[in-house]
Design goal:
Structural class: alpha/beta
Number of helices: 10
Helix content: 25-40%
Strand content: 15-25%
Number of strands: 12
Shape: elongated
Radius of gyration: 20 Å
């Protein structure tokens, strides 16, 4: 047995799930205690390493979240909103740190996660990378320095398989821009342009989403006024940046007081 934190990976067969399984298995700072998949999935009952086409890791894929979480100190979760909300309650019961990279969460979902955070540590972020979280800080500062003469547009690009738009990262950036301006994002958000929309409304924060190919993630925050533009940009070329951030969050959450944290807390920004 090891005295490092035991980690459960949910959605183990997905792209992020497999990368997380490999990263945890290779880490000296934590160890893999379970790989979780939905009931009826073809991997259930198989060793997760051989299911991924590699060497056996001695950890079987399970569909029993309760049993998996009971032996874990942390759960890393990049799945779907309905699954994540259910996992938040179970992780809280197990007093395991719940690291959430799932996007597309509704306000109702977030309220449920907030309730779970009364009992355990939850670290939730639309993006786990250091660079993106620095971009969030920069966006807030630039938005605070510029008035509404500068239109704000957030342009994001992702692979063809992404199912939600705008991305969770784009919404993080929009929220930071709104905070910098001292406004409520819900009141100034514009993400539905199609057809005869009329002129842009002063003070709105616009969102544009691009989907295609295997784009990992690109985000631009454009501040555009008459005669000049400022663009803040982050480009991810490898999903390993999200894996590193998620592992850092899982380890950071050990022995913290219960609460709903984000990556800015983890990074001390």
């Amino acid at each position: 047995m090891t005295d490092t934190p035991g980690i459960v990976i949910t959605g183990a067969s997905g792209r992020m799930g497999q990368m997380l399984v490999k990263a945890v298995a290779a880490s000296d700072a934590c160890h893999l205690v379970a790989a979780l998949e939905r009931e009826g999935h073809g991997w259930v009952g198989q060793d997760v390493g051989t299911a991924m086409g590699g060497q056996a890791l001695g950890v079987m894929v399970t569909d029993d979240a309760v049993a998996a979480f009971a032996k874990a100190q942390a759960v890393i979760d990049f799945t779907a909103p309905s699954a994540t909300v259910a996992f938040a309650g179970l992780a809280a019961q197990a007093r395991a740190v719940h690291v959430i990279g799932t996007t597309g969460l509704s306000e109702v979902d977030i309220e449920a996660i907030d309730r779970a955070a009364h009992h355990a540590v939850i670290v939730r972020a639309g993006n786990m990378s250091l660079g993106v979280n620095l971009l969030v800080q920069l966006t807030r500062k630039v938005a605070a320095a510029l008035d509404a003469d500068f239109d704000i547009e957030i342009v994001e690009a992702h692979h063809r398989h992404k199912v939600d738009a705008p991305s969770g990262t784009a919404l993080m950036l929009g929220a930071a821009a709104a905070e910098g301006r001292g406004v409520d994002l819900a009141e100034v958000r514009d993400s539905g342009r199609d057809g005869m929309t009329g002129a842009r409304k002063r003070g709105d924060i616009g969102f544009s989403a691009i989907r295609g190919g295997d784009i990992v993630g690109e985000h631009d925050v454009l501040f555009a006024a008459d005669g000049e533009r400022i663009t803040l940009r982050h480009v991810a070329t490898d999903r390993s940046v999200f894996v590193r951030g998620a592992l850092k969050a899982a380890l950071w959450g050990q022995d913290r007081v219960p609460g709903h944290y984000d990556m800015l807390d983890v990074l001390g920004l």
